[in-house]
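Q: What structure does this chain adopt?
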Amino acid sequence: KAYGYSYSVQLPGEEPIGRVEPVGNAPLLALVHKMNNCLSQMEQFPVKVHDFPSGNGTGGSFSLNRGSQALKFFNTHQLKCQLQRHPDCANVKQWKGGPVKIDPLALVQAIERYLVVRGYGRVREDDEDSDDDGSDEEIDESLAAQFLNSGNVRHRLQFYIGEHLLPYNMTVYQAVRQFSIQAEDERESTDDESNPLGRAGIWTKTHTIWYKPVREDEESNKDCVGGKRGRAQTAPTKTSPRNAKKHDELWHDGVCPSVSNPLEVYLISTPPENITFEDPSLDVILLLRVLHAISRYWYYLYDNAMCKEIIPTSEFINSKLTAKANRQLQDPLVIMTGNIPTWLTELGKTCPFFFPFDTRQMLFYVTAFDRDRAMQRLLDTNPEINQSDSQDSRVAPRLDRKKRTVNREELLKQAESVMQDLGSSRAMLEIQYENEVNDDTKRNTTKESLQYALETLTMNGCSVEDLGLDFTLPGFPNIELKKGGKDIPVTIHNLEEYLRLVIFWALNEGVSRQFDSFRDGFESVFPLSHLQYFYPEELDQLLCGSKADTWDAKTLMECCRPDHGYTHDR
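A:
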């Protein structure tokens, strides 16, 4: 009851009691601020920022020294690895080439490509001759072309250090430091602050990496292309509502399924499964998570309530955690090695309200894509990092670039063709529209036209019955919203039922397959779970960029980046 009185809402089943003056959001706002102060005092999250002893300067120059020194070190050192066939398998060739030297910043999938194109990914049949270990090594030209021209090649080998399965997008350096038995003593006696590149032993000892073929049942896991997984999950079955309309309440009675309450996943007494870190502030974090959920989704507890947050999400931002995250994400060595602390990635997904959008966007680039894209994003936000006089010390990512020209009149058709060719490629894709100098001109014009059309919509003053509506989906007279819907006119008495059914069919039942395909396409590029860093209303800013309120000269100058020898002055 106190909750209802405080925020001017009436509890379900309760009668209004006298004159109770609402106190607004001040109590909850004060509680959030106090809890955030407690969090700042209690948290002990480590920050893996690597300060090289020889680095001089502060701010951007200090980041420059760190990044350039780290890159120079990695460019002049290699890890010695022994590739071995896993003891559990005998149906692939054994590596006989001895230890190999590997670029420490190379990804695990680069080792797979190296072995597969040389025939080590081919699985032998039981009746094949197994005495092929001494055969000459030949490069499979067709496989080499597949790996070179497309990223959409299913994985054939998986790799282990000890009993640890290595992710394909992990750097070899990170895998060795994290899992190698030879590096265990160093992890116990050396911390990242004092010696971020490890002791000499990690660079002189030989690290064993086991390989074995990928089983068919494992190919549908997270490291493979998500399209196969999405189609397998979303195929309609005989028990789906689409094929059982005669037996469910939606078809016979026009009763829509109840809407799930998003508050339910937050109102639990135990930490979420995806929180694995331990910290003295964990209880405070979980309480703030519940308070944020109540502030954001309180209207699900009431009928016809206004969908407005009690307090803005920005009030939950923790300045201390944000400073730690920003310092962590601006360290070039952390991004080069992919050594992001667990607490940061887990908090970013379970409690994104602690961080502003820019911080979560950088975290998204670091975790969702490859190292080169993360480094490119870091350089875009901190260009001084790459202002080194020495070409060998420049922190420059190695990104291929592809450019395609499309016609707006056939946008979807050409977009499908582009995605088939380059959807799985790691190259940076640049889109240019035919006969357009400024790619944003027509897009902005189209958005303004749509906005004007929406604002000028009017009602004709007709009654509901005069509209001649029936229980069919608007624009699709062959799709009935319920059994016999084409013979049921819409009146003022069944208007609410009609609106519920139209909303359900337009946003749920009628587009479920399209949304499944949409998820399928996203999964083919990167896991959809990475979007948990953002709220739905932030996706437009993530994909399309920020929207300037005014297009004045200062704003336009800030958005322009001169190139080809030009500057802002000339």
